[in-house]
Amino acid sequence: MGFFGLDVYSLWESLHAVFDYLGSHAPAEVEHAPEAYRCFEPYAEDPQPYALPPG
After folding, report:
1. Alpha carbon distances (Å) from 18 to 31, 49, 52, 54
2. Which domain covers residue 12, as residue numbers?
């Protein structure tokens, strides 16, 4: 899978969809998926602070 863009306004819905897909199609990978998404945790599913430039 590759990501070639990011829609921050539906980011968390997309992340949940990935987990759902993995649960149905690749259950062995579900436990590894959260590691890839930990960088989004500080934003608590709020797209506004994530979309702002750093600093």
Report:
1. 12, 22, 24, 27
2. 8-51
Decide which of 54 and 6 is more confident.
54
What's the whole-model pTM score? Answer: 0.63
Residue 1 lies in a domain: no
**4, two tokens:** 């070639």
Structure tokens at 21: 């897909």
* Pick from 34, 39, 33: nearest CA to 8: 39
Three-class SS of residue 18?
helix
Domain count, the chain: 1
Residue bearing tokens 């897909």: 21
